[in-house]
Amino acid sequence: NACTAPTDRVLVLSYAPEIAVMASRGFAGGISYVRPELLDSADDQALMVSRLREERVPIVLTEPEPSYTDDYVPSFGIVTAYLRDAYQPVATVDFGREERYRLLTRRGLAPQTTYEPLHLPCCNS
Known about the structure:
Blueprint: E1 9-13, H1 18-22, E2 26-27, H2 42-54, E3 59-62, H3 67-72, H4 77-86, E4 87-94, E5 100-106, E6 113-115, E7 120-122
Parallel strand pairs: 1-2, 1-3
Antiparallel strand pairs: 3-5, 4-5, 6-7
Helix pairs in contact: 2-4
């Protein structure tokens, strides 16, 4: 919530639909969470990427490595290619309770501030 604007959306490639809800942000790509073998057809992925291109999505959270590469890349090749082109990995973050996520930020969207408790970039304007 502190690192995004109220109209931003957050993409979560993990079973963690609560993240966008707790941040009071919309689900990016029109999907509350992305899981392997769920809505992973070429048509589903093309629709998701089309939506992502139209939305402001400064932050993406994914499963940490190697889980992301092992589990998500085989199911979401189109989405992975889009993320590789449009986003940059910033950090792997531990939010406590052994919940680790890989954080990506949108290329070309310069952070305005830093979220000091975790020293992470914020794109909140």
